[in-house]
């Protein structure tokens, strides 16, 4: 049997059913281009005519000249009507696609309860709709909704649905675990029996993650003979999401020897996952398999010293195969080997036996003792190491900030911040309001920096966390603030610690902006803005 | 074969290796209590002696009288030494646990590369360490690190490791997929062969999620004969996380007919998952299987009308089985039973069918929609319910607060708060400094209240947490503040939500003091201080 698998991406259709995922036509076009570069075979663009975004997408995607086939999604014709007169089917034709995904019922319970029609009429709806699109020259992918629940309830009927679709000319018969409740061994058994019951057909699999088994279920179906895999980037989708292509593709390519997009394009996987998460404006879990920021991160000291000897000791694949990389986290549990490898990652000359390096390590340990945590604040650590290496110029000289929050009964709360700095020899004094104190500080600081460093406009804060370090006396205790920032290409994390949450936030904010402007404040770089003054930032 | 599975929770040990997860001794004790209520059989508390938090945890957990067995984690003895003289093993004994988890190497490559010793010495290390702890009367769970990688590389050696552990008296032989790179069918094959090679042993499974297969791999091992499952709440753990018990337990109980914690306790699963995520201060993905906020949420119009006809159409289980609820965006139907039972707990007359109760439930739902979360803020919920029952008198009438933070180069940051209230008919205007803004507010509010309610002196804030609710635009987003307060007898939790962290803190602070003074502001109670004015607190 062939070891070649067709990847069918439905991020732009089923993925947008996920909570918090909403894509404009422009967003969809950007993602389609990226998916095409990744090498997926099918890109399901949406439901033609369902809304103006999808109409625009199907029109404009034709001009991109993609290699992937664009498919449009729709249901089988309405009951008791003709396929030629069905509005949904007409709109699929009008969308200009060469392939259509038609969804039909295969669970008798659903035919009765949801469609409220007869089993025979459902078969006719499937046959007529597929035959009609085939006559018009389209490739047809038939998605058998609730196939596994249907098979378990009434196997004969579920099988007759697939047979009818095949008879009408469907190119692919896709078995959907719509409710996500089926287990891997059940999928394996059912797909195996189907491949012998309908021997000439090409089968596909479409799973959902309600039991945290969507990836395993997909692999089971492939091992049993399915040759098309439907899923989404990062597993976006309704409820618990669709099958996550970012895990399925490397599992198939690297673990099971199937060919999906090829090992060369596999290196774009991490980048694609992060790009899509950025466009969809959904934060990616750090612990996402293969492509997450922590997927190859190592924390424990013993692990780290073993990893440095041979990375196979604690890594199941070489991270670069999927375009990710190893990260060594610095934490209280770890020894200095973490810091050394971190410095080496940054290209710094850092010999752990030298006097200088020992001092830096001691400083970091001292900061950790004070409550700093660099494990989740890579950027602050990098700034520290570069600073210690004498590489950094000052971003500004700090003079003062003031922050005022005022609330009067019956009126909205007001936050204002005032920032006094010296930037590149100029005194700058700015004031700004905000939705909250940190937002006000962020706004005032940006206002002070933007004329000297316009690149500051391209970054924004994307996450903000506060933690009380000593719980014995909460409001008088030290707090640690972690800030995540991002621009279009990357995200980075910074940390601040103080007894005062505003001061800790200020510190993390300043580090975040220093990191964003790192290219302009390294001693080695050419000044792109007004020349900053000498010395290190004191924070 | 028995259908009974032991659940071994390692949230407090392996879970804390996850990026961003950091737990104090207090946090660990709270989670241990919650896990015990959920009904897990083993709670791995940490590594005795590795840091002061773990030392404190093992000391204090003994006073909780939990039913679950507390276990301490450690490595086998160091090479070329004696078990009786090994510091780690000694510290396990000193921790006072009845069960120990000992990790040992089973991959020959690791014995050479990481341990840098001989295969025979590794066997001796395993034998000696287990035998020593067994002589001291402990139950011993042997975690065979990298078992599957080891088996694939050198099956004879991997098997001899388990045999040696058994011979030394280990009660459980746990096969670990430490790097998370093994596939379900491989696990099934290897575990099956082991159960026949070592027929008298009890086997366990410990997996990691690097291929997004940790849940499937665990199920595979159980189906092949493993009877202990190691994992963490919400799948916290190094890199991509450990096997997620919140998905494994319902899969085993509801889908495969095994008994883990029992169907009755299963109803606490969602609550437990959310509680742990709050304590760990890690956002729970909305789409988390079974326990996530979107796990049973329905968005699509067609889905919703089918769901309203029969929820089996798009739900694989009844959400209440795991303590979760259906969310239909058009009409919220479920979830009032927990509020009713809460009200009954407080001795309130709360009939869920009455018009009054329906209004209260709607108000709570509305607040939850705004970002309030009452799962970790019992005291705020109780205040709401009592308020709705007309039981509460006003603590004060709010007029205004102002909060100023000022930092000048070279000088310490200064925080001041000004509070204007009417307490018991008297205008009160106070000012106070603090170590931070919330401390300043706390001090100013106390100053205003203390002459009328001297009991306020007996309580203090003991924990303070801030969570950004909408991460898309971090400093301009809504935040939720959770405050824990305590006096000599008890602790209680309150919540505040606002776009402004200071306003949210104020709200949680006020609730905290209202709860502390509950005895004095209930309508039924005798006034102990100057008589407060009538009406409800407006906050």
From TrEMBL, chains A, B:
Pathway: Amino-acid biosynthesis; L-isoleucine biosynthesis; 2-oxobutanoate from pyruvate: step 1/3. Keywords: Amino-acid biosynthesis, Branched-chain amino acid biosynthesis, Isoleucine biosynthesis, Transferase. Its EC number is 2.3.3.21. It catalyses: pyruvate + acetyl-CoA + H2O = (3R)-citramalate + CoA + H(+). Residues 5-267 form the Pyruvate carboxyltransferase domain. The keyword Transferase applies. It holds the Pfam family LeuA_dimer. GO terms for molecular function: (R)-citramalate synthase activity; 2-isopropylmalate synthase activity. The keyword Nucleotide-binding does not apply. CDD domains: DRE_TIM_LeuA3. InterPro entries: 2-isopropylmalate_synth_dimer (IPR013709), AIPM/Hcit_synth_CS (IPR002034), Aldolase_TIM (IPR013785), Citramal_synthase (IPR005675), LeuA/HCS_post-cat (IPR054691), LeuA_allosteric_dom_sf (IPR036230), PYR_CT (IPR000891). One of its GO terms (biological process) is isoleucine biosynthetic process. Gene3D superfamilies: 1.10.238.260, 3.30.160.270, Aldolase class I (3.20.20.70). PANTHER family: (R)-CITRAMALATE SYNTHASE (PTHR43538:SF1), ALPHA-IPM SYNTHASE/HOMOCITRATE SYNTHASE (PTHR43538). Belongs to the alpha-IPM synthase/homocitrate synthase family. NCBIfam families: citramal_synth (TIGR00977). This is Citramalate synthase.
């Amino acid at each position: 049997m062939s070891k070649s698998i067709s990847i069918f991406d439905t991020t732009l259709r089923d993925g947008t059913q996920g909570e918090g995922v909403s894509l404009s036509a422009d967003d969809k076009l950007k993602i389609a281009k990226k998916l095409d570069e990744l090498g997926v075979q099918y890109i399901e663009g949406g439901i033609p005519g369902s809304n103006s975004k999808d109409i625009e997408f199907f029109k404009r995607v034709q001009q991109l000249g993609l290699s992937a086939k664009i498919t449009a999604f729709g249901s089988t014709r309405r009951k008791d009507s003709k396929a030629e007169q069905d509005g949904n089917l007409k709109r699929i034709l009008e969308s200009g696609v060469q392939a259509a995904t038609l969804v039909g019922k295969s669970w008798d319970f659903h035919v009765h309860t949801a469609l409220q029609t007869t089993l025979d009429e459902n078969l006719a709806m499937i046959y007529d709709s597929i035959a009609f699109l085939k006559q018009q020259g389209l490739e047809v992918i038939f998605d058998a909704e609730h196939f596994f629940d249907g098979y378990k309830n009434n196997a004969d009927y579920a099988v007759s649905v697939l047979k009818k679709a095949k008879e009408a000319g469907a190119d692919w018969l896709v078995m959907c675990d719509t409710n996500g409740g089926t287990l891997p061994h059940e999928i394996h058994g059912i797909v195996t029996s189907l491949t012998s019951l309908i021997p000439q057909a090409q089968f596909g699999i479409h799973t959902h993650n309600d039991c945290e088994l969507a990836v395993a279920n997909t692999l089971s179906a492939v091992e049993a003979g399915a040759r098309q895999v439907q899923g989404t980037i990062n597993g976006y989708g309704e409820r618990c999401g669709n099958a996550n292509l970012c895990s399925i593709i490397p599992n198939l390519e690297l673990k099971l020897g199937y060919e999906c997009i090829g090992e060369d394009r596999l290196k774009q996987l991490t980048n694609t996952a992060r790009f899509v998460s950025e466009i969809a404006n959904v934060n990616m879990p750090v612990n996402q398999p293969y492509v997450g920021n922590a997927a190859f991160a190592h924390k424990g000291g013993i692990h780290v010293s073993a990893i440095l000897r041979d990375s196979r000791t604690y890594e199941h694949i070489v991270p670069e195969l999927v375009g990710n990389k190893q990260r060594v986290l610095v934490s209280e549990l770890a020894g200095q080997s973490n810091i050394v490898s971190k410095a080496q990652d940054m290209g710094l000359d850092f010999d752990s036996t030298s006097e200088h390096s020992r001092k830096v390590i001691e400083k970091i340990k001292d900061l950790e003792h004070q409550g700093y945590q660099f494990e989740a604040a890579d950027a602050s650590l990098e700034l520290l190491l570069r600073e210690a290496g004498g590489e950094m110029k000052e971003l500004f000289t700090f003079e003062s900030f003031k922050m005022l929050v005022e609330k009067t009964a019956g009126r909205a709360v007001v936050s204002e911040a005032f920032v006094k700095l010296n930037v590149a020899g100029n005194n700058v004094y700015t004031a700004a309001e905000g939705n909250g104190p940190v937002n006000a500080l962020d706004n005032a600081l940006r206002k002070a920096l933007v004329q000297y460093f316009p690149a500051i406009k391209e970054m924004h804060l994307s996450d903000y966390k506060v933690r009380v370090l000593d719980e014995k006396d909460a409001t008088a205790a030290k707090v640690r603030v972690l800030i995540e920032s991002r621009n279009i290409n990357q995200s980075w994390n910074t940390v601040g610690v103080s007894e005062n949450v505003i001061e800790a936030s200020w510190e993390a904010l300043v580090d975040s902006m220093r990191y964003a402007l790192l290219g302009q404040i390294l001693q080695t770089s050419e000044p792109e803005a007004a020349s900053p003054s000498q010395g290190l930032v004191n924070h």
